[in-house]
Design brief:
Elements: E1 2-5, H1 6-11, H2 13-20, E2 25-29, E3 32-37, H3 45-51, H4 54-65, H5 73-81, H6 98-108
Parallel strand pairs: 1-2
Antiparallel strand pairs: 2-3
Length: 125
């Protein structure tokens, strides 16, 4: 772990980032530690966010300390391999067409209901 002053880091940041992929750097401000520069090349963004989330680590510690039964990988594979129930076919319902209803009512000479406010092109003409 190397110590680097903030001014020095600012002067040549790209080079420092490349070196941080191999070893961690402590950035100092007036000789006191201010930040860490750690290389994260090869990690996914989601993994980085999770690694830095204290709530995730708390949940993980609680789960490890739990006496609740867990599934083995073989049990999980078996559960996931079971055939699932067939999804139901959608009910065939005719589509509702408010414009057609209004046009038909106009053609008969009847009054039409107003469409809800804020809908473009839905008011009777």
């Amino acid at each position: 772990m190397k110590q680097v002053g903030i001014r020095e880091a600012r002067a040549d940041l790209p080079k420092l980032v490349k070196r941080a992929q191999r070893e961690t750097h402590v950035l100092t401000h007036h000789g006191k530690p201010a930040a860490l520069l750690v290389g994260v090349e090869g990690y996914d963004y989601e993994d980085l966010v999770r690694m830095l989330d204290p709530a995730f680590w708390k949940m993980l510690a609680e789960r490890r300390a739990s006496t609740r039964s867990t599934l083995t990988l073989a049990d999980l594979d078996e559960r996931l391999a079971r055939p699932r129930a067939k999804p139901r076919a959608p009910k065939n319902r005719p589509a509702r067409h408010p414009r057609r209803k209004r046009r038909a009512a106009r053609a008969r000479g009847g009054a039409t209901a107003q469409a809800p406010p804020g809908r473009r092109g839905s008011a009777p003409r």
